[in-house]
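so my prof wants the structure for this chain in the tokens format not the other one, which i didnt know existed until like an hour ago. anyway here's the sequence
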Amino acid sequence: MLTRARRFRSARPPLDDVEVDASDVYDVMTELLRIYQFRDRDRVASHGLTVTQAYALDIILRRGDLAAKELAQELALEKSTVSRLVDGMVANDLVERSGHPRDARSALLRATPLGRRLYSAFRRDIVRENVDVLRGLAPSQRTTLIETLRRFTDAARRRIRGADP
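here's what i got, hopefully its the right format
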């Protein structure tokens, strides 16, 4: 399948290969992320979570206890949106609040056993699907793929946090 950049190459002034590849990456990543989000919505819902709750649990479980302000920064959402998200997660016994040792005005968020269990079941389903896709790649190809995806993730994270123009 030709990507959009390669299909329309003759309709535009010539681009160097890196620009064509960058355009192809945009096309592939945009479609991948769109499909992943729809897939995740269906898969996450089957485990009793919303996609945003799953993302929040992922961050809390990876980082350990953290304040809602830090969670908002990681999710790239407004604090008020995260406050409503956390209130709902507390009400559904997915996370709990505890006192912050350095800031009496803030609470630390921690995943509950139910939150950990639901998130782990969802993640396990996705990992199994990834195993099926990765099985056909050599170890060096898998390593390159993971490193490449990490570079794109790091670049996007820097841009969102304002470190890149």
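also thought this was worth mentioning. The radius of gyration is 20 Å.
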